């Protein structure tokens, strides 16, 4: 910040207003949207950006304004304009797959654009080869749905009816798509009015001075509180997606080489060289645009795990202030992170979620294990068919367990999208022809550790009519890895009346009366499970999180009538320690040897330089 520091009271007012407007926009969308994915599952985000296209709010990630400003110069924008896009390859890296539709509204003061309000979310259907617009076996973006580059969807308050007609005509769920878009446009216009009032009350110069201060404070806080915890040096690690829906399962590597030089102007360099070639199937992510600015903000929350306390970590925003601290270096075109159009991308979550874990693994190597174990907290499952009301589509984004941490167990059934949730059973049964027979925790799914991994879902759905099952899910072979002696969690599993499903399924027939059993991933464990307090293991058994057999086999804890048998536990733990030998720093689980040719660890797992 080059100008004088803003008044501290005004800074608090501006910062609070930004947070309030963001929440108001999201609340308005949730209350007025039509689709279960937006209204009930809350799979959408709002964001506020300044006229320099910098993200000001830090509650969660968001898309980018860069593609809109690229194609529509701000000086030509007018009040009431609303811009729209979902084209992955023309989004500057801000949109990962076509169902994520993005609405952008400029904020005006004195006749000039001073900020932007934006919302983007995962919509039910935007066309393509299969219901839900996520064909798991796609070989081309043209199979995935309608691609819309940045367009002016509203011109000075007047909707572009022709564009809306084209989009709804291409959707299998036209009414919900139209309702969702109307909700998002109206909410962002409302947010733009709120921000306009802030500028009108305090003046452009003072408000923009506060914007600079908010961003600069994040930069300084991350540099002072977090980066000081990482030693200077070069650290390398990689992890893998397991299948792409086209080729047989194999290791699709995502590698990070992290160079830390805290005295440099840009202290962190993240180099993705060594990432596998782009896949034939839809697991690619077009991240190499605008200097990787989306991925910088996507990955930066991992650094918050270095905070002194978890309470302090929760206080740290991730806004544009993290961008000056990170340099991204991408490999040549044609990799998982640098795909060439029209490579398919609808399952790009396999790559961008794995990158969170790869950065955590790199930092675990650098810091002696002061990072959480792995998690895989998103996958799409669903059914579609017809009932008395016509065609229907139920697609749910289910979470999983997060990784154990050096100070605590992982969390159960969390989701990478903040504030999102599973669809309530009562709503689901009223809307779709099935019964939810069970919704609980998947026992023993969390990776054993001194601090156990969080548990995944165990959900059973009994169909009342013939339908088709679909799934976009990774970690059905590979597990969420454990760290610092912790063990891997259990992988994703689905079976239909005893027949196990692949993670990528488009149209598996399900007959009326059959039960779909879904068990989502457990997070990896942290630390030696034989060091876990036996009383905590007993409590896990009482709570239904660990079985009696799991307590014995994974933790060496013998229970008699629910109580710990101290003598038998001590004897068993001594025997287990003698039999197992040294623990690996990373445990990739039993699925890794299946795809690695029998190896139980990767070369990069070694802690030696």
UniProtKB/TrEMBL annotation:
<dbReference type="Pfam" id="PF02538">
    <property type="entry name" value="Hydantoinase_B"/>
</dbReference>
<dbReference type="GO" id="GO:0047423">
    <property type="term" value="F:N-methylhydantoinase (ATP-hydrolyzing) activity"/>
</dbReference>
<dbReference type="InterPro" id="IPR003692">
    <property type="entry name" value="Hydantoinase_B"/>
</dbReference>
<feature type="domain" description="Hydantoinase B/oxoprolinase">
    <location>
        <begin position="7"/>
        <end position="529"/>
    </location>
</feature>
<protein>
    <submittedName>
        <fullName>N-methylhydantoinase B</fullName>
        <ecNumber>3.5.2.14</ecNumber>
    </submittedName>
</protein>
<dbReference type="InterPro" id="IPR045079">
    <property type="entry name" value="Oxoprolinase-like"/>
</dbReference>
<dbReference type="GO" id="GO:0017168">
    <property type="term" value="F:5-oxoprolinase (ATP-hydrolyzing) activity"/>
</dbReference>
<dbReference type="GO" id="GO:0006749">
    <property type="term" value="P:glutathione metabolic process"/>
</dbReference>
<dbReference type="GO" id="GO:0005829">
    <property type="term" value="C:cytosol"/>
</dbReference>
<feature type="region of interest" description="Disordered">
    <location>
        <begin position="583"/>
        <end position="609"/>
    </location>
</feature>
<keyword id="KW-0378">Hydrolase</keyword>
């Amino acid at each position: 910040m080059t100008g004088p520091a803003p008044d501290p009271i005004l800074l608090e007012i501006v910062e609070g207003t930004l947070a309030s407007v963001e929440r108001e926009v999201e609340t308005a969308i949730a209350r007025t949207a039509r689709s279960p994915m937006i209204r009930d599952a809350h799979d959408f985000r709002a964001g506020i950006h300044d006229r320099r296209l910098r993200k000001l709010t830090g509650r969660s990630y968001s898309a980018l304004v860069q593609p809109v400003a690229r194609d529509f110069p701000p000086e030509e924008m007018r009040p009431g304009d609303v811009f729209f896009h979902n084209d992955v390859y023309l989004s500057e890296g801000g949109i990962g797959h076509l169902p994520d539709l993005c609405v952008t509204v400029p904020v005006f003061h004195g006749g000039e654009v001073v900020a932007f309000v934006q919302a983007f979310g995962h919509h039910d259907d935007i066309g393509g080869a299969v219901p839900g617009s996520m064909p798991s076996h796609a070989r081309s973006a043209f199979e995935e749905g309608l691609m819309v580059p940045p367009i002016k969807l509203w011109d000075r308050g007047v909707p572009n009816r022709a564009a809306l007609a084209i989009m709804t005509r291409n959707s299998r769920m036209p009414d919900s798509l139209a309702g969702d878009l109307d909700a998002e446009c109206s909410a962002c216009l409302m947010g733009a009015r709120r921000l306009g009032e802030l500028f009108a009350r305090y003046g452009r110069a003072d408000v923009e001075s506060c914007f600079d201060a908010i961003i600069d404070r994040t930069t300084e806080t991350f540099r002072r509180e977090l980066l000081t915890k990482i030693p200077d040096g070069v650290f390398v690690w990689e992890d893998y997606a397991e299948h792409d829906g086209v080729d047989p399962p194999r290791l699709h590597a995502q590698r990070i080489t992290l160079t830390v030089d805290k005295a440099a102007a840009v202290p962190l360099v993240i180099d993705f060289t060594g990432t596998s070639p782009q896949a034939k199937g839809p697991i690619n992510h077009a991240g190499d645009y605008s200097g990787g600015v989306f991925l910088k903000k996507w990955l930066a929350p991992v650094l918050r795990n270095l905070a002194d306390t978890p309470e302090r970590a929760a206080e740290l925003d991730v806004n544009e202030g993290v961008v000056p601290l990170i340099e991204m270096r991408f490999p040549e075109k044609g990799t998982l992170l640098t795909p060439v159009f029209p490579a398919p991308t609808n399952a790009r979550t396999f790559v961008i979620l794995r990158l969170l874990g790869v950065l955590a693994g790199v930092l675990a190597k650098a810091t002696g294990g002061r990072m959480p174990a792995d998690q895989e907290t998103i996958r799409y499952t669903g059914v579609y068919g017809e009932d008395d009301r016509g065609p229907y589509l139920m697609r749910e984004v289910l979470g999983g367990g997060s990784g154990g941490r050096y100070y605590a167990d992982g969390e159960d059934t969390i989701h990478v999208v903040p504030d999102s949730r599973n669809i309530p059973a009562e709503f689901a049964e009223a809307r779709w022809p099935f019964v939810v027979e069970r919704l609980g925790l998947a026992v023993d799914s969390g990776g054993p550790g001194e601090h156990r991994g969080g548990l995944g879902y165990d959900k059973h759905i009994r169909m009342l009519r013939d339908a088709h099952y679909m799934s976009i899910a990774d970690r059905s072979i590979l597990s969420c890895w454990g760290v610092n002696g912790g063990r891997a969690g259990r992988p994703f599993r689905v079976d239909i009346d005893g027949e196990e499903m692949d993670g990528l399924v488009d149209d598996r027939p399900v007959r009326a009366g059959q039960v779909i059993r879904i068990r989502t991933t457990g997070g990896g464990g942290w630390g030696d499970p034989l060091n876990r307090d036996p009383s905590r293991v007993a409590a896990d058994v009482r709570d239904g999180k660990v079985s009696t057999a799991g307590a014995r086999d994974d933790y060496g804890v013998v229970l008699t009538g629910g109580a710990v048998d101290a003598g038998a536990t001590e004897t068993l733990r001594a025997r287990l320690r003698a039999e197992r030998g040294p623990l690996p720093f990373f445990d990739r689980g039993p699925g890794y040897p299946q795809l690695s040719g029998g190896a139980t660890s990767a070369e990069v797992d070694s802690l030696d330089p």
